[in-house]
Each structure stands twice: as C-alpha cells, then as structure tokens.
Amino acid sequence: MRNYVCEKCCVEITPEEVRWANTIHDYFNGRPDFPTCPKCGKRVERQFAATKKGTPND
Asked: Where are the chain's structural domains?
C-alpha cells in the first residue's frame, strides 16, 4: 500500500486518513478530488512507497 507524505509537515498519511476535498471551485478548476493533510490541511499531491516512517528523503 502506498501512503501519502505531506511535503509541509513531512508526516506519512495512510489513504484511510486522507481527507478528500470536493468543492465546486475545485471541480471547475479541473481538480474535483485531491487529498489534504489531516494535520496541517495542506494539499498532498505525492505518494511514496510505505517503506518506513519519516520524510521520503531520509
């Protein structure tokens, strides 16, 4: 299973923890669904193999 990693707070988020935004604004901008970090609320766009906890650059 691939987890998301927030680039702002470098926290690893499982797909079950990810909150998906679906608003009219995002829909009309071609991004109907995107994950947001449950800790800081920043958009999370990258996925990494869930090899270990921590930042993807460790």
From this structure: 2-49
